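User
Take a look at the entry that follows and flag anything odd:
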Amino acid sequence: MLAAVEADGTILTAGAGHSLAAVAETFYRAGGLACVRPIYHPELLPMHGAISSTAAERRSGLASEVLREAGLAPHDVLFVFSTSGVNYYPVELALEAANAGCPVVAVTSVAASAQAPRRAGSTLAEVATVVLDNLVPPGDSTYPEQAPVTAAISTLATTFLWNLLMVRLVDKATETGVQLPLWRSANVEGGDAANADLLRHYQTRIPQLG
Protein backbone atom coordinates (compact mmCIF):
# COMPACT_ATOMS: atom_id res chain seq x y z
CA MET A 1 0.00 0.00 0.00
CA LEU A 2 2.79 2.40 0.90
CA ALA A 3 4.60 1.65 -2.35
CA ALA A 4 1.42 2.35 -4.30
CA VAL A 5 1.00 5.71 -2.57
CA GLU A 6 4.64 6.64 -3.14
CA ALA A 7 4.34 5.81 -6.84
CA ASP A 8 1.04 7.74 -7.16
CA GLY A 9 -0.79 4.51 -7.89
CA THR A 10 -4.35 3.53 -7.10
CA ILE A 11 -5.63 1.05 -4.54
CA LEU A 12 -8.62 -0.72 -6.03
CA THR A 13 -11.09 -2.40 -3.69
CA ALA A 14 -13.65 -5.01 -4.71
CA GLY A 15 -16.22 -7.35 -3.27
CA ALA A 16 -19.71 -8.72 -3.85
CA GLY A 17 -22.85 -9.05 -1.77
CA HIS A 18 -22.28 -8.00 1.82
CA SER A 19 -18.54 -7.74 1.17
CA LEU A 20 -19.42 -4.50 -0.63
CA ALA A 21 -19.82 -3.05 2.88
CA ALA A 22 -16.07 -3.42 3.24
CA VAL A 23 -15.56 -1.70 -0.11
CA ALA A 24 -17.69 1.22 1.11
CA GLU A 25 -15.52 1.40 4.23
CA THR A 26 -12.42 2.01 2.09
CA PHE A 27 -13.84 4.81 -0.04
CA TYR A 28 -14.19 8.57 0.54
CA ARG A 29 -14.18 8.19 4.29
CA ALA A 30 -12.79 10.63 6.84
CA GLY A 31 -9.30 9.43 7.66
CA GLY A 32 -9.26 7.15 4.61
CA LEU A 33 -6.98 7.11 1.60
CA ALA A 34 -7.96 9.38 -1.28
CA CYS A 35 -6.28 7.07 -3.81
CA VAL A 36 -8.85 4.28 -3.32
CA ARG A 37 -11.06 3.35 -6.26
CA PRO A 38 -14.02 1.07 -5.53
CA ILE A 39 -14.82 -1.37 -8.33
CA TYR A 40 -18.13 -3.18 -8.55
CA HIS A 41 -21.11 -3.89 -10.75
CA PRO A 42 -24.73 -2.99 -9.85
CA GLU A 43 -25.73 -6.63 -10.22
CA LEU A 44 -23.49 -7.51 -7.27
CA LEU A 45 -25.41 -5.29 -4.84
CA PRO A 46 -28.14 -7.16 -2.90
CA MET A 47 -30.30 -4.02 -2.75
CA HIS A 48 -30.54 -4.15 -6.55
CA GLY A 49 -31.80 -7.73 -6.34
CA ALA A 50 -30.90 -10.24 -3.64
CA ILE A 51 -31.19 -13.43 -5.70
CA SER A 52 -29.61 -11.89 -8.78
CA SER A 53 -26.64 -10.61 -6.74
CA THR A 54 -25.82 -14.15 -5.66
CA ALA A 55 -26.13 -15.35 -9.25
CA ALA A 56 -23.87 -12.56 -10.49
CA GLU A 57 -21.11 -13.44 -8.00
CA ARG A 58 -21.20 -17.04 -9.21
CA ARG A 59 -21.05 -16.10 -12.91
CA SER A 60 -17.78 -16.48 -14.76
CA GLY A 61 -16.71 -13.48 -16.82
CA LEU A 62 -18.11 -10.61 -14.75
CA ALA A 63 -14.74 -9.96 -13.08
CA SER A 64 -13.09 -9.46 -16.46
CA GLU A 65 -15.76 -6.95 -17.44
CA VAL A 66 -15.40 -4.97 -14.22
CA LEU A 67 -11.60 -4.91 -14.30
CA ARG A 68 -11.56 -3.89 -17.95
CA GLU A 69 -13.74 -0.90 -17.14
CA ALA A 70 -11.64 0.08 -14.13
CA GLY A 71 -8.27 -0.48 -15.76
CA LEU A 72 -5.11 -1.57 -14.00
CA ALA A 73 -2.06 0.69 -14.08
CA PRO A 74 1.51 0.18 -12.90
CA HIS A 75 1.91 0.51 -9.12
CA ASP A 76 -1.76 -0.31 -8.43
CA VAL A 77 -2.85 -2.77 -5.73
CA LEU A 78 -6.12 -4.73 -5.74
CA PHE A 79 -7.92 -5.64 -2.52
CA VAL A 80 -10.58 -8.33 -2.85
CA PHE A 81 -12.97 -8.79 0.06
CA SER A 82 -14.70 -12.17 0.12
CA THR A 83 -15.19 -14.19 3.28
CA SER A 84 -15.99 -17.46 1.49
CA GLY A 85 -13.57 -16.73 -1.37
CA VAL A 86 -14.91 -19.48 -3.62
CA ASN A 87 -17.19 -17.81 -6.16
CA TYR A 88 -16.09 -16.92 -9.68
CA TYR A 89 -16.16 -13.15 -9.19
CA PRO A 90 -13.56 -12.79 -6.41
CA VAL A 91 -11.36 -15.62 -7.70
CA GLU A 92 -11.32 -14.31 -11.27
CA LEU A 93 -10.65 -10.76 -10.07
CA ALA A 94 -7.54 -12.01 -8.30
CA LEU A 95 -6.40 -14.18 -11.20
CA GLU A 96 -6.78 -11.45 -13.83
CA ALA A 97 -5.08 -8.82 -11.71
CA ALA A 98 -2.20 -11.13 -10.84
CA ASN A 99 -1.76 -12.02 -14.52
CA ALA A 100 -1.54 -8.29 -15.24
CA GLY A 101 1.26 -7.93 -12.69
CA CYS A 102 -0.91 -6.26 -10.05
CA PRO A 103 -0.45 -7.41 -6.44
CA VAL A 104 -3.65 -8.83 -4.94
CA VAL A 105 -4.53 -8.70 -1.26
CA ALA A 106 -7.27 -11.14 -0.28
CA VAL A 107 -9.30 -10.39 2.83
CA THR A 108 -11.01 -13.71 3.36
CA SER A 109 -11.64 -16.55 5.78
CA VAL A 110 -9.38 -19.55 5.31
CA ALA A 111 -11.70 -21.70 7.44
CA ALA A 112 -14.82 -20.68 5.50
CA SER A 113 -13.10 -21.27 2.16
CA ALA A 114 -12.03 -24.75 3.24
CA GLN A 115 -15.65 -25.82 3.82
CA ALA A 116 -17.39 -23.95 0.98
CA PRO A 117 -18.06 -25.45 -2.47
CA ARG A 118 -15.12 -24.69 -4.81
CA ARG A 119 -17.27 -23.16 -7.54
CA ALA A 120 -14.38 -21.49 -9.36
CA GLY A 121 -11.95 -24.41 -9.12
CA SER A 122 -9.71 -22.64 -6.62
CA THR A 123 -10.12 -20.12 -3.81
CA LEU A 124 -9.30 -16.47 -3.44
CA ALA A 125 -6.71 -17.32 -0.79
CA GLU A 126 -4.95 -19.71 -3.17
CA VAL A 127 -4.47 -17.17 -5.96
CA ALA A 128 -3.82 -13.93 -4.03
CA THR A 129 -0.42 -12.36 -3.45
CA VAL A 130 -1.14 -11.67 0.24
CA VAL A 131 -3.85 -13.22 2.40
CA LEU A 132 -5.39 -11.48 5.40
CA ASP A 133 -7.48 -14.03 7.29
CA ASN A 134 -10.50 -12.45 8.99
CA LEU A 135 -11.01 -15.68 11.00
CA VAL A 136 -14.75 -15.71 10.32
CA PRO A 137 -16.25 -19.17 10.97
CA PRO A 138 -18.00 -21.09 8.20
CA GLY A 139 -21.55 -19.86 7.85
CA ASP A 140 -20.67 -16.43 9.31
CA SER A 141 -23.14 -16.62 12.23
CA THR A 142 -21.68 -16.62 15.76
CA TYR A 143 -24.56 -16.81 18.24
CA PRO A 144 -25.50 -18.82 20.24
CA GLU A 145 -22.04 -20.31 20.53
CA GLN A 146 -23.04 -23.98 20.53
CA ALA A 147 -25.40 -23.73 17.54
CA PRO A 148 -24.93 -20.32 15.89
CA VAL A 149 -27.81 -18.98 13.83
CA THR A 150 -27.35 -15.18 13.96
CA ALA A 151 -24.88 -12.34 14.65
CA ALA A 152 -22.93 -12.50 11.38
CA ILE A 153 -19.41 -11.25 12.03
CA SER A 154 -17.79 -10.89 8.59
CA THR A 155 -18.52 -7.18 8.06
CA LEU A 156 -17.17 -6.24 11.48
CA ALA A 157 -14.08 -8.44 11.16
CA THR A 158 -13.24 -7.25 7.66
CA THR A 159 -13.64 -3.55 8.33
CA PHE A 160 -11.63 -3.96 11.54
CA LEU A 161 -8.80 -5.52 9.51
CA TRP A 162 -8.92 -2.66 7.02
CA ASN A 163 -8.62 -0.09 9.79
CA LEU A 164 -5.74 -1.99 11.37
CA LEU A 165 -4.05 -1.73 7.98
CA MET A 166 -4.66 2.02 7.93
CA VAL A 167 -3.10 2.38 11.37
CA ARG A 168 -0.02 0.41 10.28
CA LEU A 169 0.16 2.39 7.04
CA VAL A 170 0.19 5.70 8.92
CA ASP A 171 2.96 4.39 11.19
CA LYS A 172 5.08 3.22 8.24
CA ALA A 173 4.48 6.45 6.34
CA THR A 174 5.60 8.44 9.39
CA GLU A 175 8.75 6.30 9.70
CA THR A 176 9.68 6.86 6.05
CA GLY A 177 8.55 10.46 5.69
CA VAL A 178 5.78 9.75 3.18
CA GLN A 179 2.80 12.10 3.11
CA LEU A 180 -0.39 10.06 2.87
CA PRO A 181 -3.36 11.46 0.90
CA LEU A 182 -5.96 11.24 3.66
CA TRP A 183 -9.48 12.61 3.57
CA ARG A 184 -10.73 15.01 6.21
CA SER A 185 -14.30 14.98 7.40
CA ALA A 186 -16.44 17.39 5.39
CA ASN A 187 -18.33 18.14 8.60
CA VAL A 188 -15.46 19.79 10.46
CA GLU A 189 -14.13 23.31 10.00
CA GLY A 190 -11.74 23.39 7.05
CA GLY A 191 -12.62 19.90 5.86
CA ASP A 192 -13.84 20.89 2.41
CA ALA A 193 -10.80 23.07 1.79
CA ALA A 194 -8.43 20.31 2.91
CA ASN A 195 -10.08 17.85 0.53
CA ALA A 196 -10.14 20.15 -2.49
CA ASP A 197 -6.60 19.38 -3.66
CA LEU A 198 -7.18 15.63 -3.27
CA LEU A 199 -10.33 15.83 -5.35
CA ARG A 200 -8.53 17.71 -8.11
CA HIS A 201 -5.72 15.17 -8.14
CA TYR A 202 -7.74 11.95 -8.11
CA GLN A 203 -11.07 12.80 -9.72
CA THR A 204 -9.94 12.08 -13.28
CA ARG A 205 -8.87 8.52 -12.45
CA ILE A 206 -11.55 7.74 -9.83
CA PRO A 207 -14.89 8.55 -11.47
CA GLN A 208 -16.83 7.67 -8.31
CA LEU A 209 -15.49 10.90 -6.78
CA GLY A 210 -17.57 12.95 -9.23
User: Anything to note?
Assistant: The first strand starts at residue 11 and ends at 15. The chain has a mean pLDDT of 96.
